[in-house]
Amino acid sequence: MITAVELGLLYAIMALGVYLTFRILEFADLTVDGSFTTGAAVAAISIVNGVNPFLATAAAFVAGLGAGVITGILHTKANIDGLLAGILTQIGLYSVNLRIMGAANVSLLRNDTLFSGLRADGNLGGGSWLGTAYLAPVALVVLLLMIWFLNTNLGLAMRATGDNSEMIRSFGVSTDAQKILGLSLSNGLVALSGALVAQYQGFADVSMGIGIIVAGLASVIIGQAIFGRLTIVRAATAAVFGAVLYRVVIQLALIAGLNPNDMKLISAILVVIALVVPQMKIVKKVPHRFTPAWRTGKSEVVPAEGVEPAEGEEA
Fold first, then answer.
1. Helix (H, G, I), strand (E, B) or coil at 46
2. Which of 34, 65, 126, 157 could join 2 via S-S bond, C-beta 3.0 to 4.6 A?
3. What is residue 250's predicted lDDT score, i.e. its pLDDT?
4. Is residue 255 predicted with pLDDT exceeding 70?
5. HSE-CB for 131 with a 13 A CA cutoff
6. In 3-state terms, the chain is what percent helix, strand and coil (to 5)?
7. What's the distance, Cα to Cα, between the start and end of the chain in Å?
8. Can you give the pTM of this predicted structure?
9. What's the DSSP call for residue 203?
10. What is the pLDDT of residues 75-85, one digit of tens each?
11. Which residues lie below 8 Å from residue 38, measured CB to CB, with a gap of 6+?
């Protein structure tokens, strides 16, 4: 279970990237299946060739930025549908990732990574909760940076682009530039997550990003179904908690004896449940039963002691 929480904190960075496109820009970006592996590949091959792990991780982030820019340009400048643009970039990145690694997988077991010290001390990989204590601040810093950015003028323009592109365009804001920037930052975060996961697991594999979009969507949807998304702070925080919860649920499914080959199916079912359940009438009624009167605009009139309520009023 400790391992699931640790992985959840690393995948939370990817979930924040998915949140940026899926919720902020209202853009279904499938590039993440490729950019996640790109981050892992760049970090792994850099570390194997003697590059400092911190610089290797930064390089992975930059590579993810580039992947997002490509999708953004295909969509905004080449007028290709957003979904198709993401698929085209994702497919192209598969070959690029193979070129980067030079093989289907790269092992990091005999190389120093960001987590080598923690693993050597037995504080990572389920050894103790100290690993979680070290990884939690990483996810927290990225979360705080995301919240800060989305509340800057640039971030507000990006949020407006997703909400009403025609309106924000009338104020002189380039929606194309906002989309390219959003896709770039999103895939940069996804690649950063891939780099950290590769160093945590001790290897990078060309297929490790397949289906990662489902995990990202599941994290965002599950988290926001539980915590809500009325504000940026709550919505972004929900994505982080959703990523951890998603990994915990997957771990519980494995403990229950389910076949590991069925994990993609379980992920898809989780997303469906998270999307369908909030729409059920019985679930929609629950929040209203616990909503204070002052939030519904209604007020109770409590008559003074010994005074009968007027006709038409309820006691």
1. helix
2. 126
3. 83
4. yes
5. 26
6. 70, 0, 25
7. 53
8. 0.85
9. E
10. 999 999 999 99
11. 60, 63, 64, 67, 93, 96, 97, 100, 191, 194, 209
Residue whose C-alpha is closest to residue 79's, from 213, 187, 181, 179: 179
**Cα–Cα dist 123/101, whole Å:** 29
Question: Which residue type is seen at 61?
Answer: F
- Name the band, by pLDDT with cuts 50, 70 and 90, for residue 127: low
For 106-118, what is the mean pLDDT?
87
CA dihedral (197, 37, 24, 161) positive or negative? positive
Q: What kind and span of H or E run contains 198?
A: helix 175-201
Six-digit token pair at 1?
A: 């279970």
Residue 312, pLDDT > 70, answer: no
In angstroms, the CA 47 to CA 102 distance is 14
Amino acid at 87: I
- DSSP calls for 209-237: TTTHHHHHHHHHHHHHHHH--SSHHHHHH
Question: Shortest CA distance to 86 belongs to which of 222, 155, 186, 198?
Answer: 186
Angle at CA of residue 22, ends 18 and 23, nearest 5° = 110
Q: What is the DSSP string of 255-312?
A: HTT--GGGHHHHHHHHHHHHHHGGGSHHHHHHHHHTS-HHHHT-----PPTT-PPPTT
Residue 243 identity (one-letter amino acid): A
Q: Which residue's entry shows tokens 């939370």?
A: 12
How high is the pLDDT of residue 21? 93
Q: Which residue has the tokens 């990225």?
A: 142
